[in-house]
Amino acid sequence: MSKKLHAALAALFLIGVSGTAMAADKPTDPQIAHIAYTAGEIDIKAANLAVKKSKNKEVVAFAKDMLRDHEEVNKQALALLKKLKVKPEDNATSKDLTKAADGERAKLTKLKGAAFDKAYIDNEVAYHKQVNGALQTVLIPSASNPDLKSLLETGLKIFQGHEQHAEHVASMLK
Fold first, then answer.
1. For the segment 31-42, what is each residue's pLDDT rounded down to a tens digit?
2. Which structural domain range is residue 82 located in?
3. Is residue 19 part of a domain?
4. Is the whole model's pTM more than 0.85, yes or no?
5. Residues 6 or more apart from 168 whose CB is under 8 A from it?
6. What's the rounded Cα separation, in Å, for the pair 17 and 54?
7. How many domains does the chain fold into?
8. Looking at residue 169, which CATH number applies to its domain?
9. pLDDT tens figures, 95-132
10. Rounded distance between C-alpha atoms, residue 148 and residue 143, angstroms
11. Dist. CA 106–CA 95, nearest whole Å
């Protein structure tokens, strides 16, 4: 992930959804659902790109894991929202996440071979750190519905594993 995008994501999570600095402005459950779903969709798109572009067996295996896990968590999230009759609410954070991810994906699309593999995996490490941090410090504490909170906590455990897996693959690419 570029340093600029890394900083932008950090700023989004700190400013856009900060539960500490702006307790009155903490995200609502529909906003949290949309942010979490958007984060999953971003990783699904990146993983699809990696499956198409990479020739590295480890990178492709990692990307396929991302597809499987993020698609499953998003499927569970949509089922929960349907059950609760809650509509995800688009918000500035989810829009900014999508815009930043589209820019990063455009950069990745231009890369090939080892340069692509390294950039993709570095992006995954940084992205999972940011998402996991946002889950721990803002999204989970702000969720009021216990079912949503539970789904986010389950997702956090899975995504922490993704972060470790990405770090492992990154160490192999050096």
1. 998 898 999 999
2. 3-12+28-173
3. no
4. no
5. none
6. 34
7. 1
8. 1.20.1260.10
9. 888 999 999 999 999 999 999 999 999 999 999 999 99
10. 7
11. 17
